[in-house]
DNA sequence: CTGTTTTTCACATCGCCGTGAGAACAGCGA
DNA sequence: TCGCTGTTCTCACGGCGATGTGAAAAACAG
């Protein structure tokens, strides 16, 4: 499992650092931080973010407005707002603005963690889920890989399935047989040679030097994805 | 917009009726109720449910166990749990069991409403979103329509897109031009005649009598879906 | 009755996919 | 080192389904 990147936006340095520290204990997470909405929005634009934790009460822009801005700019990852008091209207307006969830301070870290995991899990099978693979941004629902330069590679159905499954496996190599069964189903009468051909075609599309794979690598009787 | 069906499971009749009454004020919702987990699970099996509201403290089965059971049986719609006291472990264990959200009693109805809407919105573009169209259950991600008898109809890419968009429009007819732009994009060089052919093929697949459409009906210079 | 909308169906093309056949390569025992 | 074997890669071929279009029939509106 590749680490998911979480952006934390809060002007309270102490809380922010505490969150970073706690989350870093789990190697399923990587963190980035910002102390203002403006900085947070800038980071969200540049980097690939899997989930956003944001305080409602920020010095520069109101949290709800920031959410609206982000969504208008095409930010699709789940957003969890951290709110000071338990104000109902905060919750309602925030959710309507485009936030996915609210957690009231003070909160137990374990509660936040559970919600973070739940939202990541959900989002990863939504239509606008986007994964970072090498220099590409991979959108399964659109069957497209987009270069960091912006040039797009169109993928076929099978190619998308293969990449989806390899991504879920993270850095670990996946056996041909397993991959075969996951993509084609258990009684498909298709041999691993078919899979190999698909891998070949994928490499022609996405590797800089197809004869020298750097992203989609052969290893231990199977394939794996290199981030 | 077709009404979404919400199943409410709670042994507190007063609260249950109150929720039903409130939700019925909006014609975007239809409600079903059950006073025990067992009854709720039974209903969830038979009917098409878009969202489940469930009390944690039920007389027969614990709410969390009920959630686990439902998920194990393949229930995919979002589940919002209603919890009496604000117990952290309740929340965490509930989310891990497969619930999507928690709301603590007492709650303002407007808050619950906002969360219900947020979850419906999210779920409708997830991979296991399922829509009820006539006697069919339509799963866009799988590109399949399943009869109430269980027989499956495989759909093509374009057919799926067309149905997805028509469903979102609800009972209102959609102009050929709009549909064309939504499915093919704005500069595709394809005429409405192509769309008409796709509609023809769809009807061959899903209508009982293709020459006498009952589901995918022509109206006002466009098409609409009849529930 | 006439022009327009809508349906019906056949045809041609294109892309996806599975397979065959051979090349390249690595490992291993003699 | 040589030869054998199994794995992996490369590439071309053929089939099939999805899609767009043409042509004509049918339905409909005025």
TrEMBL record, chains A, B:
CDD domains in the cross-refs: trans_reg_C
UniProt superkingdom: Bacteria
UniProtKB keywords: DNA-binding, Phosphoprotein, Two-component regulatory system
Biological process terms in GO annotation: regulation of DNA-templated transcription
Entry-linked Pfam families: Response_reg, Trans_reg_C
GO terms, molecular function: phosphorelay response regulator activity; transcription cis-regulatory region binding
PROSITE patterns named in the record: OMPR_PHOB, RESPONSE_REGULATORY
Positions of post-translational 4-aspartylphosphate modification: 55
Protein name per its UniProtKB record: DNA-binding response regulator
Organism: Roseibium polysiphoniae
């Amino acid at each position: 499992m590749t680490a998911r990147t979480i952006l934390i936006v809060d002007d309270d340095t102490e809380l922010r650092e505490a969150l970073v520290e706690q989350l870093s204990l789990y190697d399923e997470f990587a963190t980035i931080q910002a102390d203002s909405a403006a900085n947070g929005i800038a980071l969200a634009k540049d980097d690939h973010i899997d989930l956003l934790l944001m305080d409602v009460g920020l010095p520069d822009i109101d949290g709800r407005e920031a959410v609206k801005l982000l969504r208008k700019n095409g930010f699709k990852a789940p957003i969890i707002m951290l709110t000071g008091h338990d104000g109902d209207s905060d919750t309602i307006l925030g959710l309507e603005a485009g936030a996915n969830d609210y957690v009231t301070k003070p909160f137990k870290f374990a509660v936040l963690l559970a919600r973070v995991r739940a939202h990541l899990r959900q989002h990863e099978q939504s239509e606008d889920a986007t994964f970072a693979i090498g220099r590409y941004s991979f959108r399964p629902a659109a069957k497209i890989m987009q270069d960091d330069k912006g040039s797009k590679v169109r993928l076929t159905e099978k190619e998308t399935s293969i990449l989806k499954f390899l991504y879920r496996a993270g850095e670990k190599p996946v056996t041909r047989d397993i991959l075969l069964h996951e993509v084609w189903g258990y009684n498909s009468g298709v041999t691993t040679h078919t899979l190999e051909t698909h891998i070949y075609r994928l490499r022609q599309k996405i590797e800089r030097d197809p004869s020298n794979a750097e992203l989609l690598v052969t290893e231990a009787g199977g394939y794996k994805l290199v981030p």
